[in-house]
Design brief:
The structure holds 3 protein chains of 3 kinds. By secondary structure, chain A is mainly alpha-helical. Chain A has 17 helices and 2 strands. Chain A has 2 domains: 219 residues, no CATH class; 240 residues, MetI-like fold (Orthogonal Bundle), CATH 1.10.3720.10. In chain A, helix 10 crosses helix 12 and helix 12 crosses helix 14. Chain C is an alpha/beta fold. Chain C is globular. The chains are: A mainly alpha, B mainly alpha, C alpha/beta. Chains A and B meet through helix 2, helix 7, helix 9, helix 10 and helix 11 of A and helix 1, helix 9, helix 10, helix 11 and helix 12 of B.
Chain lengths: 493, 442, 265
Amino acid sequence: MPVLWLFLIVLAVAILGYLLGRARALSAAPEGRRGLHSLPVYYGANVALKVLVPALGILILWLLVQPFVIDRAVSGTIPDSDIAEGASRGLVMSEVARVADGVKAAVGAGTMPAAMAADPSPDLEAVTQALKDAGQVVTGDVTQTVFAAAQKYNAMAAQGGLYMTILVLLAAAAGCVMGLHEAKPDFRARNVVEKGIRALLIAAASIAILTTVGIVLSLIFNTVEFFRLYPASQFFFSLEWAPSFSGRGGASELGILPLLWGTLYISFVALAVAVPIGLFAAIYLSEYASPRLRAVAKPLLEVLAGIPTIVYGLFALLTVGPLLVSVFGDGGYLGVSWQGGGRAVMTAGLVMGIMLIPFVSSLSDDIINAVPQAMRDGSYGLGATQSETIKQVVLPAALPGIVGAILLAASRAIGETMIVVLGAGAAARLSLNPFEAMTTVTAKIVSQLTGDSDFASPEALVAFALGMSLFVITLGLNVVALAIVRKYREQYD
Amino acid sequence: MSDASMDSTAPRQSRTLLETDARTRRRNAAEKRFRMYGLAAIGIGLFFLIVLAASILRSGLPAFTQTVLSVDFVLTQEQFDKAEGTLFKTKAYEGYFNAALVSQLQSQGLEAEVDAKAAERILGKTGSTIREFYRANPDQLGQEVRFDLSVSSRVDGYFKGRVTRDGFVESRFLMLADLDLVDALTEGGIIRQQFNWNFVTGADSGVDNPGGAGIGASVVGSFFMMLVVLVLSLPIGVAASIYLEEFAPQNRFTDLIEVNISNLAAVPSIVFGILGLAVFIQFMHLPQSAPLVGGLVLTLMTLPTIIISTRASLKAVPPSIRDAALGLGASKMQSVFHHVLPLAAPGILTGTIIGLAQALGETAPLLLIGMVGFVARGYPETFAAGFTDPNSAMPAQIYTWASRADAGFYEKAWGGIIVLLLFLLTMNIIAIILRRRFERRW
Amino acid sequence: MNDMRIIERGTLVNDIKISAKGVQVYYADNHAIKDVDVEIEDKTVTAFIGPSGCGKSTFLRCLNRMNDTIDICRVEGHIAIDGQDIYDPQVDPVQLRAKVGMVFQKPNPFPKSIYDNIAYGPRIHGLARNKAELDEIVEKSLRRGAIWDEVKDRLDAPGTSLSGGQQQRLCIARAVATEPEVLLMDEPCSALDPIATSQVEELIDELRQSFSVVIVTHSMQQAARVSQKTAFFHLGNLVEYGETGKIFTNPEDSRTESYITGRIG
């Protein structure tokens, strides 16, 4: 992996620069350490920073920009006439990228001779066969346009890689020379290094922003692409979810409403389980429990929060689902046949509720504890019992905070994936029966992006529009909830 | 002045305190009920925990045992040559083996018929295993070799209670008569259960072989992913926290970062998967199913958790320490790196371990970057390949097994959960010990 | 250990409302109140004075068993109201506290409306049969809390929107609304400005008409202004108890004198 090697070389230059810089500063000072402005290590660190930061900066920037540039250049070579009916430029480009990767892999695996990979007009059947032999996924036969574009793609990538290597190494060397040149006794090495470290710290803190920007951009771009292929009004208002498996657009019905309904229904069931249990548990733990019981029960409940969601998913699929069927299903204990299969709103909701119990209880516990003791004393002093105090003084005082906690739990429930993927079912349905299988936004994101459909088809792109909706909903809930909780905390600080 | 003047607001007739009136009794009953609700809520929560633990153990523990049939078997050179000369070579080996099986039963004084069909239903196709063994080790010809062969998943299920005699449906996979034979073989000590090392160390098998599936390869995948997460998220998270806690001025940029971090902590994990798919795979063309990509996605997801806990531990270091260092002429940077950071280290480490544990159990983002449905057939060849070669991860492997049609995989999925939970448990215990040992109260 | 100490006092005018004998209070291992004997009269303002941490607030909280809410606190000895032992196992602390109301150092109105703050006690104790009666109780209590005129137009406003002095009078009115027989006040003016303080002190003097009032205070001037009886606590001991005038002009114990003249405290 050349990037890894490049990275290691830069690292080695930096270490070397560090040692040299330190030695040079020491030897340049006639009266030893005392003659230096800063400690010797700072002179070394100055060199190392000057090697690492520009070189790695260029490396990362290049890696980010290169695919973009190549994509544009290659895309420009494909004439409009070669884009098939119903397909888009993006669809063709993803084909090109796949063939380009495939050719590289096939040459590497030895199923395709290097000459064939470089041939401007090869036997396309042989190419397709060679790609298939190398275990590459090829949809249909490779066309001449696509193959030529793929060749250009690979050539540009190789050239870009070469330029990048040269530039990075030059930057590293220049940094090293410059840093060494600066290593003189009156150079304020510490201040410069500290400024550099500070800049790095800021960069690290900005990653949070970059992540958000990355999420928003990747959602927006693909969502816009989706709405180009599929009408937005139909996505938001259609009551039907029926993606076609093979066709490309047209035949599919991709309405979000049935999914949203399933999501909200399951979340509602989950909250109906988690809120009363979590809230009562929090009240008991914070107001009644002896320190000993609290020390045992609180961590035990929180174990439920530390269990991965895949475990809950399996629990729903294999334990709770069959259990519910044996109670509510055909020939069940209740003698009703409400539930057909293990996967149902009830199954997923119940298990998700269990998962959320500690979430609700520990947040509420914190909030209830933040209510000042003076408030309770005031109530006890009037002769109120403990439960009267809790119900009429503590809870009303803690209400905003508890509402915030419940909203956070709701956002958790809406965004939860594994439990619904395994426990809720796959059928999109607008129904009121909680014993029926329904599906959710998150479950469909998974199924649309893990299926066989092409990334550029509306059936796959719809997942980004779903993700966008999910992101907006949960973000809205979180912002409101966090604002409420923060305001509440300030009130009693 | 101290005389009581009787006005209209004089207190009511004094009631006795020694007996509770009806209203107080009612209120006390309400109080008791309310307490019971609280206790019941805790009880229900703990009950769920117990049910969950019980169903994991009950369904998962059998994955760690395996039913094997062991036969001491001698294949002579002539038999070998003869078998290699026939048209259906494996059939010939099967014949030898079944004969050995019968004779071993007889030597124990047990009489049973072993026909080839029944043996195949119980053991699967033994012929090819034996043939491969002798072709690879011709020097073993004529020697006594002990073969431990795992039985078919249905017979295995019979031992683990998945398949029972009542309600047994005969099929071409297993007949009722086979169970009699199995019982006889068990009585003779030929079939027994043993610890399933293959499950712990092995790789995933194909969709048709639940018996041979192991979690080992995906543990390695998870390991490489966690390595990426640790190497990236710890330095970045600590650097970000130091900036926000120690250096950041109160301005809009800082506010923006803070709001971003607290919101990112609550963004659904699947959204991070979408980010990983769009940015790392579609845009940057990093390989699919690679632990490197999984690690990158999980890093972004874990960062907010680590930043939040690191900031809390930095905040816990009293300002007097910083002042002391500054008073001696240290720069702000030196006071932070020489004094504050070492004092906060145990807390940071604890937070990081807990963040890693969360990342280790996370599944949803991995689904989107292709770590699911992929059959991880082996271990990576080199260390560097461990990052980039397609692999699975523990939770993704569990999901893959759970979504396969053969119910034999469910047992593996539960077993995988036990392995996963053991890792999480270990990490959490380390975190707790760290906290207990090194936590400083100021 | 010194049960036989006889406290000198003036002519007995009122009945004894609360009598405490040999009261000991422990916070875990800390002996906070040491063998305190005191008799508190009805329709009198009794002031507890003493330096910080002398146990006066702790003792006050024993009188309505507020110390029950603190896990590590243990009370020994005998405290009786109207001759009934309040630490008797048959006594319900809830019922006791309805009879012995309490006002705290910091005004602590509930985060509810002014009306609901006052109505809270009557509601939980079932003092009103209908809304009209409750309205009447609220108005009467607010008048007795000397705050009616200031809040009568905004009974729906939250209690926390009032000023500090108003909040404290609201809390007093709230305590009065449950019709207690004894009113305990734990430094009720320490968080208030001088004007609010004088309003509350006036109120306390009026309340004496109907209740036995026990007030813990830091301010000796306040004790002199509002109380008829004064008890001086020092290091958990009740050093001296008697007529306020006598304590302030002619204390018997040298420690009391030191405190009053400002040498300790």
